[in-house]
Amino acid sequence: MTQPSGTPTPQPAPTPSRSMPDGYFHTMYAHSDDPWGFTQRFYERRKYALTLAALSAERYHRVFEPGCSIGVLSAELALRSDQLECLDLSPRATALAADRLAVYGDRVSVRTGDLVADWPDGRFDLIVLSELLYYLDPHEVDGVVERLSDALTPDGEVIAVHWRRKVPDYPQSGDDVHDRLIASPLHHVAGYSDADLRLDVFTVGPRPSVAQRENLVG
Ligand SMILES: C[S@@+](CC[C@H](N)C(=O)[O-])C[C@H]1O[C@@H](n2cnc3c(N)ncnc32)[C@H](O)[C@@H]1O
């Protein structure tokens, strides 16, 4: 079994392209239907629990989850979404995610594509960036970060969650990408970090807290 999601078993490095070697993820899914142990590890269950607990709304209308992998977090997000749009580079991963998420019918769509090249049109109430941005180079991350404000509804939020430990295969660390997000014009509303992972939530601008929305405070 591989390490938790930040640390896959090193794969042979084919021809380099962009930020990760060509075929890196395809090779991983050719060896396993769950290369990071999303369905097995407590690390992953805990990460998902932290992620879901940090979301400030009980339900969202339109949600985008790039890098959805085999759809384990997606299945939890589907319970809180009217429409969930999942995307992943790997056709094997999206086939497995589509099977797992079929129970949600046309409320959930799963597409094979690249976060950078195939960013969807329109605005989202929630964008989930979980264990994804450190696969991009810094320039590409800046491009994604620039897109976020225009891709969110006025009340929309972005949650980013990344493994913090060093992975030699990856162009950036989790802290690198979170530092870029923190330095962006997005409004930082919540954060959590420990030795293993970092989680941050952003909105386009200031908005009422959960307690304010429920009239618990003035
Ligand atoms: C470590 S998994 C994360 C899965 C899930 N987000 C989670 O946290 O459980 C990373 C996934 O991102 C996908 N991925 C990597 N680069 C991508 C890109 N540029 N566009 C879309 N998906 C990408 C990989 O194929 C892989 O399935």
From TrEMBL:
One of its GO terms (molecular function) is methyltransferase activity. Residues 1-22 are annotated as: Disordered. Keywords: Methyltransferase, S-adenosyl-L-methionine, Transferase. One of its GO terms (biological process) is methylation. Pfam families: NodS. InterPro entries: SAM-dependent_MTases_sf, SAM-MeTfrase_NodS-like. CDD domains: AdoMet_MTases. Its EC number is 2.1.-.-. Signal peptide: none annotated. Gene3D superfamilies: Vaccinia Virus protein VP39 (3.40.50.150). PANTHER family: METHYLTRANSFERASE, UBIQUINONE BIOSYNTHESIS O-METHYLTRANSFERASE, MITOCHONDRIAL. This is Class I SAM-dependent methyltransferase. It comes from Gordonia sesuvii. The lineage of its organism: Bacteria, Bacillati, Actinomycetota, Actinomycetes, Mycobacteriales.
